[in-house]
Amino acid sequence: MSEEKKAWPTEIRLSKDRRILTVSFDNGEAHELSAEYLRVCSPSAEVQGHSPSQRKTVTGKRGVTIIEIEPVGNYAVKLHFDDLHNSGIYSWDYFLKLGHEREVLWGGYLKELEEKGLSRDR
C-alpha cells in the first residue's frame, strides 16, 4: 500500500489589510482564513492548553491583523499578530484542517462566546 501524498503549500499570501491569509496547495485547494479565525484557533499552548479542559476562549480579536509570517523549517509558519501573540506554529496540515473544518470550528467558537457572555469585540 502506498502512503497518500500530503498536500503541500504552493503560496501563502497575506491581504493588503493584513486580515486575510490565503493558503494555496498543490492539490488545487486554496483556503482564505481570517486573521481573527487564525488567532482564536491558534495551535499554541497559550490558547489550546495542554489538555481540552485547559483550552482558553479568546475574546476581542475581531480587528486583529497579522504583522509577520515567519517560516518554521519546511513544515510550518509562525504567525505574528498585532496583539503580540506569536507562539502558535501553523503546520500545513493545520491550515488544511482549519480550511476543511471552518464551519464547525468557527460555529463552535461563536457558540462558546455566546454561552459565556463574551464578545468578539472585547
UniProtKB/TrEMBL annotation:
GO molecular function: metal ion binding
PANTHER family for the chain: OS02G0197800 PROTEIN
Gamma-butyrobetaine hydroxylase-like N-terminal domain ranges (all copies): 12-95
Keywords: Iron, Metal-binding
Designated name of the protein: DUF971 domain-containing protein
Record flagged with keyword ATP-binding: no
InterPro entries on file: GBBH-like_N, GBBH-like_N_sf
Domain of life of the native organism: Bacteria
Organism: Stappia albiluteola
